[in-house]
Write a structure and sequence with these properties.
The chain is 35% helix and 20% strand. The radius of gyration is 19 Å and the shape is globular. With 259 residues, the protein is an alpha+beta fold. It has two domains: 138 residues, 2-Layer Sandwich (Phosphorylase Kinase, domain 1); 97 residues, Transferase(Phosphotransferase), domain 1 (Orthogonal Bundle), CATH 1.10.510. The chain has a five-stranded antiparallel β-sheet, sandwiched between helices. The chain binds adenosine-5'-triphosphate and magnesium ion.
């Protein structure tokens, strides 16, 4: 089913283009998502929706040609699926975060807040000058962000490549974890899956679950992030780091840690 593009007004050229594309993507988008994607065209964030690049647990990520309002050639469009019951488990990453004083028991509400939360978290990461995609725009369950990749090729996940300089990459990741913490944010799902390698630099992605350091479990999430990432480098590259030492470095009690 294609989108309905207004009853009275003649549809714009962009809407015509989108309509054609949505015929290709038939059945993928619900009506609300379609209207929100249309906004990406009208706000000149994207000029063409290209293809699906990844199907995550809760969201589908599409590649799009960049519109006039953003730099670069491409944009990643993350569309959170509305009918995803797993979102109820995500409430744990919202209750206790001062940004969410009230939690509603509605799937629509949770999905939209989650998308807004990822946008806000990415804004903090951008401020902190962390290697992470710049967020451009969100509307409901649709998030547009900087595309990490070359041409139309998505940068590979850390888990799928063999690094030439693993120590250097680990240092960059831990330094970014520290910068995030200095800006009161804990990623809370850091792993070799949520890091994309682009031109030798690790980019942290997937910030939906990231919490403010006031969250009651923030320090536990931070330790878990440090454990997961250092453990990955230990298993794959035999780089040994002490989790406690790295933790002290991240929270600012140690100026360094040994590799
Ligand atoms: N900004 C981006 N640039 C390029 N590719 C991206 C970007 N964001 C996401 N992707 C691609 O989409 C995949 C899923 O993205 P992300 O981890 O943010 O979504 P998710 O639904 O939480 O996925 P999962 O449930 O698998 O963790 C990534 O592994 C990556 O391949
Ligand atoms: Mg992910």
């Amino acid at each position: 089913m294609a989108t309905r593009v207004g009853k009275k007004k003649r549809p714009s050229r962009e809407k015509h283009m989108l309509k054609e594309q949505l015929v290709i993507e038939e059945g993928v988008f619900d009506r609300r998502s379609i209207m929100r994607i249309e906004k990406l065209f009208t706000h000149k964030i994207i000029s063409r929706l290209l293809f699906l690049i990844a199907k995550g647990k809760e969201a589908d990520v599409y590649l799009a040609d960049a519109g006039e309002e953003v730099h670069g050639d491409h944009v990643a469009v993350k569309i959170f699926r509305i009918e995803t019951s797993s979102f109820y488990s995500r409430v744990d990453y919202m209750i206790g975060d001062p940004r969410f004083p009230k939690i509603k028991r509605s799937t629509f509400w949770i999905v939209n807040e989650w998308c807004k939360k990822e946008y806000g978290n990415l804004k903090i990461a951008s401020h902190a000058k962390v290697h992470a995609p710049e967020p451009y725009y969100f509307n409901g369950n649709v998030l547009a962000l900087e595309f990490i990749g070359n041409g139309e090729n998505v940068a590979p996940q850390l888990k799928n490549i063999v690094l030439d300089e693993p120590e250097k990459v680990l240092k960059t990741i831990l330094s970014d974890v520290k910068k995030l913490y200095q800006h009161e944010l804990v990623h809370a799902d850091l792993s070799e899956y949520n890091i994309l390698m682009h031109d030798g630099t690790p980019y942290i992605i997937d910030f939906g679950q990231a919490v403010i350091d006031k969250h009651p479990n923030a320090m536990m999430f931070l330790k878990r992030d440090i454990y997961n990432i250092t453990n990955y480098f230990r298993r794959k590259y035999q780089i040994r780091t002490d989790v406690e030492e790295v933790y002290q470095y991240v929270i600012g009690k140690n100026s360094t840690y040994s590799l």
